[in-house]
Structure formats: structure tokens, C-alpha cells
Design brief:
Blueprint: E1 18-21, E2 24-27, H1 32-42, H2 49-59, H3 62-70, H4 75-90
Antiparallel strand pairs: 1-2
Helix pairs in contact: 1-2, 2-4
């Protein structure tokens, strides 16, 4: 009989984390496939606006993006929101502190 190991207890199923901006809760997509795509964008040593836009579209679900767009953030603040969402999900890894 093949070996079977149940690893359920080693995994977390807490759902997506949330950022709060001006009292608005913004869900952040934290699933591994999404974050791997975002990491690929951000590890290209480029500040290409297209990459930030693609990361933004991946990190935030439609509802969160709608709330962010209502805030009319300037570009610096918008990039900060993306960066902080990434740090929220990736923790020290996002800061280069593995």
C-alpha cells in the first residue's frame, strides 16, 4: 500500500489578509500562485509602470481595487499601497530578510 500522509494540520486556511486605509478594509489576494506571479514582476529590477499595474490587478480583488480607485491616490501613495500589500502577505521575505 502506498504511503499516505495527512498534512492538513501543518497548513493554514485563514483566508486573505486585509489592509486598512482610512477605515476601509481592503482584501489582499494571498494565494501562492498569485504571489509567485507578483514576485516575478517585482524581481525584474524594473520600475516599469506596466509591472506595477499587473501586480496591482493580481494583488487586489475587484472590490478592493474599486475602493482604492475612489481614494484618488497620487502615484507615490498608490505604489506604497501595492508595496505594503506585498509586505503584508510575504512578511520578511518581501523585505529581503529571509
Amino acid at each position: 500500500m502506498p504511503k499516505v500522509i495527512d498534512i492538513t494540520d501543518k497548513l493554514t486556511f485563514d483566508g486573505n489578509p486585509t489592509l486598512i486605509i482610512r477605515g476601509k478594509k481592503l482584501e489582499v489576494n494571498a494565494d501562492a500562485p498569485t504571489m509567485l506571479k507578483v514576485m516575478n514582476f517585482l524581481n525584474n529590477d524594473s520600475t516599469d509602470v506596466e509591472q506595477f499595474c499587473a501586480a496591482y490587478d493580481l494583488i487586489f480583488p475587484d472590490k478592493s481595487r474599486a475602493e482604492i480607485e475612489k481614494m484618488k491616490l497620487d502615484i507615490t501613495d498608490w505604489m506604497t499601497v501595492i508595496q505594503e500589500a506585498f509586505v503584508l502577505v510575504m512578511g520578511d521575505f518581501a523585505r529581503g530578510e529571509q
